TrEMBL record:
Residues 202-230 are annotated as: Disordered. This is Class I SAM-dependent methyltransferase. PANTHER family: METHYLTRANSFERASE LIKE 7A, METHYLTRANSFERASE LIKE 7B. It comes from Streptomyces enissocaesilis. Pfam families: Methyltransf_11. GO terms for biological process: methylation. Residues 52-145 form the Methyltransferase type domain. It comes from the Bacteria.
Amino acid sequence: MLERRRKVPRDAVHHPLFARFYARVSVMSDLRSGVAAHRAELLSGLSGRVIEIGAGNGLNFAYYPSAVSEVVAIEPERSLRRLAVKAGLDAGVPVDVVPGAAEALPVKSEAFDAAVVSLVLCSVRDVPRALSEIRRVLRPGGELRFFEHGRGEGRVMVTVQRALDRTVWPLLFGGCHTARDPLAGIVAAGFDIGAHRRLSVPERGPRLPSSPCVLGVARRPPEETGPSGG
């Protein structure tokens, strides 16, 4: 089912220092900031073949329901990919971890029942192209499950986010941008937005530039036929 649709470097992203930092912090965040519960909500009710883009160290794998027949997990960063492979071995569903970039997914068109993005759209280099690729690989009517952080509400928060995105934040956090609007991007890519909710991570305590999040589901329109995306 995998294919080299476009020629992409094997390691399209390489942030070894950030990868080590993220591998530690993400596990603590799951336990202390309620992220684990959000992952479970994100993946609840999924079935069939699923593609996860930007799987990181594989923290989502434990929450896939048994109705999922296969997960193809795309991870461009070498160090995180190795951790994801280990996590996949302990998952309750079959997981195949492969290298690749969100902007050029190495899979066939309309091959998946659902796609998952989890705290990844903040760091992809070309959000419209990545979402176009996701739409391409979903069958018509297929679901996009998303749990993303992005632009907050209020002038002060947005000003701080934009200032950080222009300076140190992407350099320190593996290309992450805090002021992107994931929901608007998903709509612009041609998805139909379904149930979703805004939340803050962590829910209590000081609000960070990365705290505003949105969790929900979108669909590739069912009337579409033929491959989507460029």
